[in-house]
Amino acid sequence: MPQQAIEVILMRQLASYLAIPIFLVNSAGDLLFYNEPAEALLGHRYEETGEMPLVKWAQIFQPTSEDGFPLPPEALPLVIALQQHRAAHLVFQIRGLDGVHRTIEATAFPLEGQGGRHLGAVAIFWEVPPS
Amino acid sequence: MKVTLWGTRGSLAAPGPETLRYGGNTSCVEVRGEDGTLLVLDAGTGIRCLGETLGPEASRIDLLLTHLHMDHIQGLGFFEPLNRPGQEVHIWGPPSTTLDLRSRLARYLSPPLFPVRLRDLPCRLTLHNVPLGCFEIGGLQIVAALVLHPGPTVGYRITENGASLAYLPDHEPALGVDHFPGEPDWMSGFELAAGVDLLIHDAQYTPAEYLTHVGWGHSALPQAIAFATRAGVRRLVPFHHDPAHADQLLDRLFDEGRIGSKLPFEFIPGREGAIFELGKRQSS
Known about the structure:
The structure holds 2 protein chains of 2 kinds.
Chain A: H1 6-17, E1 22-26, E2 31-34, H2 36-42, H3 46-49, H4 54-60, H5 77-84, E3 88-95, E4 101-113, E5 117-127
Antiparallel strand pairs in A: 1-2, 1-5, 3-4, 4-5
Chain B: E1 2-7, E2 28-32, E3 38-41, H1 47-53, E4 60-64, E5 88-93, H2 101-106, E6 124-129, E7 133-137, E8 140-146, E9 154-160, E10 163-168, H3 190-193, E11 198-202, H4 207-211, H5 221-231, E12 235-239, H6 247-260, E13 266-267, E14 275-277
Parallel strand pairs in B: 3-4, 4-5, 5-6, 10-11, 11-12, 12-13
Antiparallel strand pairs in B: 1-2, 1-14, 2-3, 7-8, 8-9, 9-10
Protein backbone atom coordinates (compact mmCIF):
# COMPACT_ATOMS: atom_id res chain seq x y z
CA MET A 1 0.00 0.00 0.00
CA PRO A 2 1.44 3.44 -0.90
CA GLN A 3 2.52 5.71 1.91
CA GLN A 4 -0.13 8.13 3.15
CA ALA A 5 0.42 11.85 2.64
CA ILE A 6 2.15 13.52 5.54
CA GLU A 7 -0.91 15.65 6.32
CA VAL A 8 -3.01 12.49 6.58
CA ILE A 9 -0.45 10.87 8.87
CA LEU A 10 -0.46 13.95 11.09
CA MET A 11 -4.26 14.04 11.11
CA ARG A 12 -4.46 10.42 12.23
CA GLN A 13 -1.87 11.01 14.94
CA LEU A 14 -3.73 14.08 16.17
CA ALA A 15 -7.02 12.21 16.13
CA SER A 16 -5.54 9.34 18.11
CA TYR A 17 -4.71 11.78 20.91
CA LEU A 18 -7.94 13.78 21.00
CA ALA A 19 -10.95 12.99 23.16
CA ILE A 20 -13.51 14.00 20.53
CA PRO A 21 -14.72 11.45 17.99
CA ILE A 22 -12.96 11.83 14.62
CA PHE A 23 -13.45 9.98 11.33
CA LEU A 24 -10.82 10.25 8.56
CA VAL A 25 -11.19 9.33 4.88
CA ASN A 26 -8.81 9.63 1.93
CA SER A 27 -9.46 11.45 -1.34
CA ALA A 28 -11.29 8.44 -2.76
CA GLY A 29 -13.57 8.42 0.26
CA ASP A 30 -12.12 5.26 1.74
CA LEU A 31 -12.28 5.15 5.51
CA LEU A 32 -8.72 5.34 6.82
CA PHE A 33 -9.23 5.69 10.55
CA TYR A 34 -11.54 6.56 13.38
CA ASN A 35 -10.35 7.13 16.90
CA GLU A 36 -11.35 5.55 20.20
CA PRO A 37 -13.97 8.18 21.13
CA ALA A 38 -15.60 7.51 17.74
CA GLU A 39 -15.64 3.81 18.47
CA ALA A 40 -17.98 4.47 21.39
CA LEU A 41 -20.51 6.16 19.10
CA LEU A 42 -20.13 3.89 16.10
CA GLY A 43 -20.38 0.81 18.29
CA HIS A 44 -17.35 -0.95 16.83
CA ARG A 45 -13.60 -0.90 17.29
CA TYR A 46 -11.60 0.43 14.36
CA GLU A 47 -9.32 -2.58 14.51
CA GLU A 48 -12.36 -4.76 13.84
CA THR A 49 -13.77 -2.55 11.10
CA GLY A 50 -10.59 -1.68 9.23
CA GLU A 51 -10.45 0.39 6.10
CA MET A 52 -13.59 0.39 3.96
CA PRO A 53 -14.88 2.21 0.86
CA LEU A 54 -17.27 5.17 0.96
CA VAL A 55 -20.22 3.20 -0.37
CA LYS A 56 -19.94 0.87 2.58
CA TRP A 57 -19.31 3.25 5.47
CA ALA A 58 -21.91 5.73 4.21
CA GLN A 59 -24.58 3.06 4.64
CA ILE A 60 -23.29 0.73 7.32
CA PHE A 61 -24.36 3.09 10.09
CA GLN A 62 -27.81 3.52 8.48
CA PRO A 63 -27.90 7.32 8.64
CA THR A 64 -31.33 8.92 8.80
CA SER A 65 -32.60 12.47 9.15
CA GLU A 66 -33.90 13.67 12.48
CA ASP A 67 -37.35 12.76 11.14
CA GLY A 68 -36.23 9.22 10.48
CA PHE A 69 -35.92 9.36 6.67
CA PRO A 70 -32.90 7.59 5.17
CA LEU A 71 -30.08 9.92 4.17
CA PRO A 72 -28.28 9.32 0.90
CA PRO A 73 -24.47 9.39 1.09
CA GLU A 74 -24.28 12.77 -0.67
CA ALA A 75 -26.24 14.36 2.20
CA LEU A 76 -23.68 13.40 4.83
CA PRO A 77 -21.30 16.17 5.95
CA LEU A 78 -18.22 14.05 5.33
CA VAL A 79 -19.26 13.27 1.77
CA ILE A 80 -20.05 16.94 1.13
CA ALA A 81 -16.60 17.92 2.44
CA LEU A 82 -15.01 15.24 0.32
CA GLN A 83 -16.86 15.89 -2.92
CA GLN A 84 -17.53 19.64 -2.73
CA HIS A 85 -14.33 20.61 -0.90
CA ARG A 86 -16.13 22.69 1.70
CA ALA A 87 -17.08 22.43 5.33
CA ALA A 88 -20.48 20.97 6.19
CA HIS A 89 -22.54 20.40 9.31
CA LEU A 90 -25.62 18.30 10.06
CA VAL A 91 -27.60 16.76 12.88
CA PHE A 92 -28.74 13.24 12.01
CA GLN A 93 -29.23 9.79 13.41
CA ILE A 94 -27.21 6.63 13.03
CA ARG A 95 -27.55 3.06 14.10
CA GLY A 96 -24.25 1.96 15.57
CA LEU A 97 -22.86 -1.47 14.86
CA ASP A 98 -23.84 -2.30 18.42
CA GLY A 99 -27.47 -1.80 17.31
CA VAL A 100 -28.00 1.40 19.30
CA HIS A 101 -29.68 4.39 17.61
CA ARG A 102 -27.97 7.68 18.37
CA THR A 103 -28.56 11.27 17.34
CA ILE A 104 -25.27 12.86 16.40
CA GLU A 105 -24.08 16.24 15.29
CA ALA A 106 -21.24 16.20 12.75
CA THR A 107 -18.96 18.81 11.27
CA ALA A 108 -16.75 17.84 8.36
CA PHE A 109 -13.97 19.67 6.53
CA PRO A 110 -11.80 18.82 3.54
CA LEU A 111 -8.07 18.12 3.86
CA GLU A 112 -6.46 20.34 1.25
CA GLY A 113 -2.70 19.96 1.02
CA GLN A 114 -0.15 22.35 -0.39
CA GLY A 115 0.00 22.52 -4.15
CA GLY A 116 -3.74 21.98 -4.50
CA ARG A 117 -3.61 18.36 -3.40
CA HIS A 118 -6.98 17.06 -2.27
CA LEU A 119 -6.09 14.54 0.40
CA GLY A 120 -9.43 13.54 1.89
CA ALA A 121 -11.75 14.79 4.58
CA VAL A 122 -12.30 14.69 8.32
CA ALA A 123 -15.47 14.60 10.38
CA ILE A 124 -15.69 15.45 14.04
CA PHE A 125 -18.92 14.48 15.74
CA TRP A 126 -20.56 14.16 19.07
CA GLU A 127 -23.74 12.64 20.43
CA VAL A 128 -26.74 14.88 20.97
CA PRO A 129 -28.17 14.01 24.37
CA PRO A 130 -31.83 12.95 24.33
CA SER A 131 -34.05 15.93 25.15
CA MET B 1 26.97 9.18 -7.93
CA LYS B 2 29.41 10.78 -5.49
CA VAL B 3 28.17 12.19 -2.20
CA THR B 4 30.27 14.51 -0.03
CA LEU B 5 29.31 15.79 3.41
CA TRP B 6 30.25 19.47 3.86
CA GLY B 7 28.22 20.12 6.99
CA THR B 8 26.83 17.56 9.43
CA ARG B 9 25.83 19.66 12.43
CA GLY B 10 22.24 20.56 13.31
CA SER B 11 20.57 23.71 14.57
CA LEU B 12 23.67 25.86 15.03
CA ALA B 13 27.23 25.78 13.78
CA ALA B 14 29.52 24.44 16.51
CA PRO B 15 33.15 25.07 15.59
CA GLY B 16 35.90 24.31 18.07
CA PRO B 17 38.36 21.70 19.19
CA GLU B 18 35.62 19.52 20.66
CA THR B 19 33.88 19.06 17.26
CA LEU B 20 36.89 18.64 15.00
CA ARG B 21 36.25 15.04 13.98
CA TYR B 22 32.52 15.11 13.22
CA GLY B 23 32.56 18.75 12.15
CA GLY B 24 30.94 21.97 13.26
CA ASN B 25 29.29 23.22 10.06
CA THR B 26 25.55 22.94 9.56
CA SER B 27 23.85 20.83 6.89
CA CYS B 28 25.26 20.77 3.39
CA VAL B 29 25.78 17.78 1.10
CA GLU B 30 27.22 17.75 -2.41
CA VAL B 31 25.89 15.21 -4.90
CA ARG B 32 27.69 14.66 -8.20
CA GLY B 33 26.17 12.67 -10.99
CA GLU B 34 28.23 10.59 -13.37
CA ASP B 35 27.64 13.18 -16.09
CA GLY B 36 28.87 15.98 -13.83
CA THR B 37 25.43 17.14 -12.70
CA LEU B 38 25.88 19.02 -9.43
CA LEU B 39 23.27 19.09 -6.70
CA VAL B 40 23.80 20.83 -3.38
CA LEU B 41 21.50 19.66 -0.60
CA ASP B 42 20.88 22.49 1.86
CA ALA B 43 22.82 25.67 2.39
CA GLY B 44 24.03 25.40 5.96
CA THR B 45 27.39 26.88 6.86
CA GLY B 46 29.14 23.95 5.20
CA ILE B 47 28.24 25.39 1.80
CA ARG B 48 30.92 28.08 2.13
CA CYS B 49 33.74 25.55 1.85
CA LEU B 50 31.97 23.73 -0.98
CA GLY B 51 31.67 27.00 -2.89
CA GLU B 52 35.42 27.52 -2.72
CA THR B 53 35.95 24.27 -4.62
CA LEU B 54 33.57 25.11 -7.46
CA GLY B 55 35.21 26.74 -10.43
CA PRO B 56 33.77 27.92 -13.74
CA GLU B 57 33.44 24.30 -14.86
CA ALA B 58 30.34 24.14 -12.66
CA SER B 59 28.20 25.65 -15.38
CA ARG B 60 24.95 24.95 -13.55
CA ILE B 61 24.37 24.51 -9.83
CA ASP B 62 21.10 23.22 -8.39
CA LEU B 63 20.63 23.90 -4.68
CA LEU B 64 17.86 21.81 -3.14
CA LEU B 65 16.66 23.08 0.21
CA THR B 66 14.79 20.74 2.52
CA HIS B 67 13.29 23.69 4.40
CA LEU B 68 14.10 27.23 5.34
CA HIS B 69 15.17 26.96 8.96
CA MET B 70 18.24 29.07 9.57
CA ASP B 71 20.71 26.20 9.92
CA HIS B 72 19.81 25.12 6.37
CA ILE B 73 20.15 28.51 4.66
CA GLN B 74 22.67 30.44 6.72
CA GLY B 75 25.55 29.70 4.39
CA LEU B 76 23.69 30.97 1.34
CA GLY B 77 25.10 34.48 1.54
CA PHE B 78 28.61 33.05 1.64
CA PHE B 79 28.26 30.67 -1.30
CA GLU B 80 30.78 32.18 -3.68
CA PRO B 81 29.16 31.06 -6.97
CA LEU B 82 26.20 33.34 -6.20
CA ASN B 83 28.55 36.29 -6.61
CA ARG B 84 29.73 35.28 -10.09
CA PRO B 85 28.12 37.22 -12.92
CA GLY B 86 26.43 34.83 -15.28
CA GLN B 87 26.72 31.74 -13.07
CA GLU B 88 23.56 29.67 -13.51
CA VAL B 89 22.09 28.78 -10.12
CA HIS B 90 18.74 27.19 -9.40
CA ILE B 91 17.41 27.15 -5.85
CA TRP B 92 14.60 24.71 -5.08
CA GLY B 93 12.60 24.97 -1.85
CA PRO B 94 9.41 23.52 -0.41
CA PRO B 95 6.25 25.37 -1.35
CA SER B 96 4.40 27.48 1.15
CA THR B 97 0.74 28.41 1.15
CA THR B 98 1.47 32.03 1.99
CA LEU B 99 4.72 33.41 0.52
CA ASP B 100 6.75 32.40 -2.52
CA LEU B 101 10.30 31.11 -2.13
CA ARG B 102 11.88 34.42 -3.13
CA SER B 103 9.97 36.34 -0.48
CA ARG B 104 10.87 33.83 2.20
CA LEU B 105 14.57 33.72 1.33
CA ALA B 106 14.66 37.51 1.08
CA ARG B 107 13.74 37.72 4.74
CA TYR B 108 17.28 36.54 5.44
CA LEU B 109 19.08 37.89 2.38
CA SER B 110 18.24 41.55 2.99
CA PRO B 111 19.13 44.19 5.59
CA PRO B 112 19.27 44.23 8.52
CA LEU B 113 20.04 40.49 8.69
CA PHE B 114 22.34 40.50 5.64
CA PRO B 115 23.90 43.40 3.74
CA VAL B 116 23.26 42.04 0.23
CA ARG B 117 19.78 41.66 -1.14
CA LEU B 118 18.78 38.50 -2.97
CA ARG B 119 17.80 40.57 -6.00
CA ASP B 120 21.26 42.18 -6.15
CA LEU B 121 23.16 38.90 -6.55
CA PRO B 122 24.98 38.98 -9.92
CA CYS B 123 24.48 35.31 -10.79
CA ARG B 124 21.66 34.07 -13.01
CA LEU B 125 19.39 32.90 -10.24
CA THR B 126 16.15 30.98 -10.73
CA LEU B 127 13.92 29.98 -7.84
CA HIS B 128 11.62 26.97 -7.96
CA ASN B 129 8.99 25.45 -5.74
CA VAL B 130 10.05 21.83 -5.35
CA PRO B 131 7.53 19.61 -7.15
CA LEU B 132 6.13 17.11 -4.68
CA GLY B 133 6.86 13.99 -6.65
CA CYS B 134 9.38 13.02 -9.32
CA PHE B 135 11.53 15.32 -11.42
CA GLU B 136 14.93 15.23 -13.10
CA ILE B 137 17.99 17.44 -12.99
CA GLY B 138 20.64 16.40 -15.49
CA GLY B 139 21.09 12.68 -15.19
CA LEU B 140 19.69 12.49 -11.68
CA GLN B 141 16.16 11.37 -10.86
CA ILE B 142 14.78 13.10 -7.79
CA VAL B 143 11.74 12.41 -5.64
CA ALA B 144 10.69 15.06 -3.12
CA ALA B 145 8.08 14.46 -0.45
CA LEU B 146 6.89 16.30 2.62
CA VAL B 147 8.17 14.81 5.88
CA LEU B 148 7.48 15.33 9.57
CA HIS B 149 9.24 18.49 10.74
CA PRO B 150 7.78 21.85 11.80
CA GLY B 151 6.88 23.97 8.77
CA PRO B 152 6.93 22.86 5.14
CA THR B 153 9.87 20.42 4.93
CA VAL B 154 10.77 17.92 2.25
CA GLY B 155 13.08 14.95 2.10
CA TYR B 156 14.80 13.86 -1.09
CA ARG B 157 15.48 10.55 -2.79
CA ILE B 158 18.06 10.80 -5.57
CA THR B 159 18.69 7.97 -8.00
CA GLU B 160 21.15 7.40 -10.83
CA ASN B 161 21.64 4.16 -12.71
CA GLY B 162 20.18 2.14 -9.86
CA ALA B 163 22.25 3.80 -7.11
CA SER B 164 20.15 5.69 -4.58
CA LEU B 165 20.50 8.24 -1.81
CA ALA B 166 17.85 9.44 0.65
CA TYR B 167 18.42 12.71 2.47
CA LEU B 168 16.25 13.32 5.55
CA PRO B 169 18.33 15.64 7.74
CA ASP B 170 15.44 16.97 9.83
CA HIS B 171 12.86 14.31 10.48
CA GLU B 172 10.79 13.09 13.40
CA PRO B 173 8.93 10.02 12.12
CA ALA B 174 8.31 8.80 15.67
CA LEU B 175 6.14 11.80 16.58
CA GLY B 176 2.86 10.67 18.06
CA VAL B 177 3.49 6.99 17.33
CA ASP B 178 2.92 4.66 20.27
CA HIS B 179 5.06 1.84 18.92
CA PHE B 180 7.72 3.06 16.54
CA PRO B 181 8.35 1.99 13.86
CA GLY B 182 4.79 1.26 12.84
CA GLU B 183 3.29 0.26 9.53
CA PRO B 184 5.30 1.59 6.56
CA ASP B 185 2.33 3.22 4.85
CA TRP B 186 1.80 5.35 7.98
CA MET B 187 5.46 6.23 8.44
CA SER B 188 6.76 9.61 7.35
CA GLY B 189 9.62 9.35 4.86
CA PHE B 190 9.32 5.62 4.32
CA GLU B 191 8.94 5.68 0.55
CA LEU B 192 11.87 8.06 0.19
CA ALA B 193 14.16 5.79 2.16
CA ALA B 194 12.92 2.33 1.19
CA GLY B 195 15.83 0.20 0.04
CA VAL B 196 18.28 3.03 -0.64
CA ASP B 197 22.02 2.48 -0.81
CA LEU B 198 22.68 5.43 1.50
CA LEU B 199 20.35 7.07 4.01
CA ILE B 200 21.46 10.35 5.56
CA HIS B 201 19.11 10.78 8.50
CA ASP B 202 18.50 13.02 11.47
CA ALA B 203 19.92 11.63 14.72
CA GLN B 204 20.16 14.82 16.73
CA TYR B 205 19.23 13.69 20.21
CA THR B 206 20.10 11.16 22.82
CA PRO B 207 17.06 9.12 23.91
CA ALA B 208 16.92 11.16 27.13
CA GLU B 209 17.05 14.45 25.25
CA TYR B 210 14.29 13.33 22.89
CA LEU B 211 11.88 12.98 25.80
CA THR B 212 12.09 16.72 26.43
CA HIS B 213 12.11 17.65 22.74
CA VAL B 214 9.12 15.73 21.38
CA GLY B 215 7.62 17.70 18.50
CA TRP B 216 10.77 19.68 17.78
CA GLY B 217 11.14 17.78 14.52
CA HIS B 218 14.18 15.62 15.21
CA SER B 219 15.05 12.03 16.04
CA ALA B 220 17.14 10.24 18.59
CA LEU B 221 19.71 7.80 17.28
CA PRO B 222 17.69 4.65 18.17
CA GLN B 223 14.77 6.05 16.17
CA ALA B 224 17.01 6.70 13.18
CA ILE B 225 18.27 3.12 13.45
CA ALA B 226 14.74 1.74 13.74
CA PHE B 227 13.62 3.80 10.74
CA ALA B 228 16.60 2.64 8.65
CA THR B 229 15.99 -0.96 9.65
CA ARG B 230 12.33 -0.84 8.66
CA ALA B 231 13.21 0.93 5.39
CA GLY B 232 15.77 -1.75 4.52
CA VAL B 233 18.62 0.62 3.69
CA ARG B 234 22.16 -0.54 2.90
CA ARG B 235 23.97 2.20 4.80
CA LEU B 236 22.87 4.65 7.47
CA VAL B 237 24.65 7.94 8.09
CA PRO B 238 23.43 9.56 11.34
CA PHE B 239 23.43 13.30 10.69
CA HIS B 240 22.40 16.70 12.05
CA HIS B 241 24.38 16.27 15.26
CA ASP B 242 23.27 18.41 18.16
CA PRO B 243 25.56 21.46 18.57
CA ALA B 244 26.09 20.54 22.22
CA HIS B 245 27.35 17.06 21.37
CA ALA B 246 31.14 17.01 21.35
CA ASP B 247 33.11 14.35 19.49
CA GLN B 248 33.60 12.30 22.63
CA LEU B 249 29.88 12.12 23.34
CA LEU B 250 29.09 11.28 19.70
CA ASP B 251 31.68 8.47 19.82
CA ARG B 252 29.91 7.01 22.83
CA LEU B 253 26.43 7.37 21.34
CA PHE B 254 27.46 5.77 18.07
CA ASP B 255 29.23 2.93 19.87
CA GLU B 256 26.05 2.30 21.85
CA GLY B 257 24.05 2.40 18.64
CA ARG B 258 26.26 -0.21 17.04
CA ILE B 259 26.27 -2.46 20.08
CA GLY B 260 22.61 -2.12 21.01
CA SER B 261 21.37 -4.41 18.29
CA LYS B 262 22.61 -6.33 15.28
CA LEU B 263 22.33 -3.74 12.57
CA PRO B 264 21.16 -4.99 9.19
CA PHE B 265 23.04 -2.17 7.44
CA GLU B 266 26.42 -0.51 7.45
CA PHE B 267 26.54 2.21 10.10
CA ILE B 268 28.72 5.20 9.21
CA PRO B 269 28.42 8.24 11.51
CA GLY B 270 28.16 11.51 9.57
CA ARG B 271 31.51 13.22 9.54
CA GLU B 272 32.38 16.44 7.73
CA GLY B 273 34.47 15.59 4.68
CA ALA B 274 33.17 12.04 4.31
CA ILE B 275 32.75 10.89 0.71
CA PHE B 276 30.52 8.08 -0.53
CA GLU B 277 30.68 6.59 -3.99
CA LEU B 278 27.32 5.03 -4.80
CA GLY B 279 27.17 2.51 -7.55
CA LYS B 280 30.74 1.58 -6.70
CA ARG B 281 32.10 -0.21 -3.66
CA GLN B 282 34.37 2.45 -2.31
CA SER B 283 33.58 4.97 0.44
CA SER B 284 35.90 6.97 2.65
